[in-house]
Amino acid sequence: MKPCLFSSPYTLSDASDTKRKHLSTAWIFEKLKEETPEFLDKVHVIPGDVSLPNLEMNGGDTQLLLEEVSVVFHCAAVVNFTKPL
Fold first, then answer.
1. Each residue's pLDDT tens digit in the chain (85 positions)?
2. Which of 64, 69, 46 minimizes the C-alpha distance to 56?
3. How far apart are CA 18 and CA 22, in angstroms?
4. Neighbours of 65 (CB within 10 A)
5. d(CA 3, CA 9)
6. What's the whole-model pTM score?
7. Which class for 49: exposed (0-12), middle (13-18), buried (19 or more C-beta within 10 A)?
8. Which residues are bridge partners to 10 per DSSP?
C-alpha cells in the first residue's frame, strides 16, 4: 500500500483497538511507516464481523462507508481452528 493510493483507508475488524495496535507494530508496514510515519492516523477501523448479517455494523458506519468508499478489497474469511483439516 502506498500512501498516495488511498486518502483514508477503512478496515473492518472484530476488535478495533487490538487490530489498530497490531497495525502499528506489524513488520509488513515498516517501510510505509518510514516513508509516511502518519499513515496510521489515516486508517479508520470500523467494528464489524463478516460472519454476521450486515457485517454487524451500526447504521452510522454503514452510511459513512457508502458515502466515502469507492474501492473495496475483500480479504476476509471465516475460519474455524477447532475442526480438523
1. 454 566 788 888 876 566 666 766 777 778 877 888 887 788 888 888 888 899 999 999 999 999 999 888 888 877 777 877 6
2. 46
3. 6
4. 17
5. 10
6. 0.65
7. middle
8. 44
What HEC string does 27-68 produce?
HHHHHHHHHCCCHHHHCEEEECCCCCHHHHCCHHHHHHHHHH
What is the residue whose three cell numbers read 493510493?
5
Take residue 66 and report the three cell numbers written for it.
457508502
450486515: which residue's cell? 54
73 and 45 in contact (C-beta within 8 Å)?
no
Nine-digit cell string for 60: 452510522
**Residue holding cell 478496515?**
11
